[in-house]
Amino acid sequence: MSKQENILQIIPATGWVAVYDVDGVETAESVVCFALVEGDGRGVRPMRADGKRIAFADEAANFLRVEELADFEDEDEEEEGDEEDEE
Q: Which of 47, 70, 67 lies closest to 57 in space, CA to CA?
């Protein structure tokens, strides 16, 4: 986080994941909450557990997006189905 941001509110994020690119494969990690932040403007940022602290999920260099867990799991099932069709 390059600019100073203040967290104004924390909102639970049950059922949401942060999606990361790990060696060309999309992996998901649970988002524990969304933070309403204020800096140059206002915005909502995802947060994840990082050991004993909570960190902004979107600060990782390999961060791609946030989506609902059910949607992410559906994408995985479709890709597995495509791979089986190719065999």
A: 47
Closest CA to 32 of 52, 3, 4, 62: 52
pTM of the entire predicted model: 0.78
Q: What's the DSSP call for residue 15?
A: T
| Alpha-helical regions (H) of the chain | 69-86
pLDDT average per 10 residues of sequence, the chain (87 residues) = 82 96 95 95 94 94 96 77 55
Closest residue by Cα to residue 34 from 70, 62, 58: 58
Question: What residue has token string 């597995």?
Answer: 80
Alpha-carbon distances of 3 from 39, 61, 83, rounded to whole Å: 7, 17, 44
